[in-house]
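Thread title: Can someone regenerate the structure for this chain?

I was given the following input by a collaborator and told the matching structure tokens would be attached. They weren't. Posting the sequence so someone can regenerate them.
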Amino acid sequence: GLFIFTSCTKVKFAGSSATGPGTQTAQGTRDVNYTGAVQAQSSKLDILLIIDDSNSMLPDNLKLAAKMANFVTGLQNSSIDWQMCVTVTRALPVGGTLAWGSSIIWSNYTPVAGTAAWVLKPTANLSTIFTNTITNIGAGWAGTDDERGIKSTWWHLYNGDPHYGNNSGCYRADAALATILISDEDERSVGGDKSQEYYAGEYKVLENDDLPSTLVTQVKDVFGSTKRFTFNSIIVKPGDTACTASQDADGSKSHYGTKYKELSDLTGGGIGSICDTDFSTNLNLFAGSLQDSISSIALECTPVGGLIDVTVTPPVAGLTTQVKGASLVFSPNIPAGRTLTLKYKCVK
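Best answer:
Regenerated them for you:
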């Protein structure tokens, strides 16, 4: 396949934080006070697909298009204003060097006028495009056995920062963002856990841009603290020995996707099994909440003790809230026009 890398010179972008620095307390925490109006939401959704193309994924990637069939059909039939880019879990050769977060050009796709060939938008032959692109991605290339899906995502967001002109075009400032990672191992194969090492030399130390918390911070830095973001993981679920045995039977050792699950938990993303026959079931792509309400809001941190004081004005009947990592999830959704007030504590 053909790979494209887009970079831009930039300074750190702080985003639009609705909270202040908070009040410092003597207990090693700070108070966060947030008040904001719930705005009518855009129907835009940007999707990033991250595919593990390591040697152990060869059998899976041959089946991947079929497992994505219902996902593709759902996009085809939706009224969502979506677009999608795809990358892999390794650095790709671009202009004689290796670059993380490169986008792959979609196969057999004629791009919409004014957009790049690696930005897929609604079109008539989605199933063929997916099948051919995944086939071209393949698996088992040189240098693919150090899988780094979180790192790839971090750099893909960096290259697509919409606040800078020379960006990839994969992300729109006013769109919700959903990433979908598909892998039969963890970040850097064993998630920085040497006890999970199977092959000699398989264990590698996680670096800063391999960490779930770093990616959550990156999203807030690039898009602001109110960006709707989920990281969806299709992995060998921790503890799923049957799936592990099935994956290992293909000839390469699999590993639980512990770090990927941690990131999905932090962002309210879906967690599916790579052994499932249908990858669409567990994905949280905001499909039911892209119009006139919000289903969740990003927090500055995971609240100390999981405690948060929530006030909605005017009230929403039967409202319940749940802290999921650094996100607050609402049920039912909060309609546009309400005022939301949050009070919680973050560790300094």
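The chain has seven helices and 16 strands.
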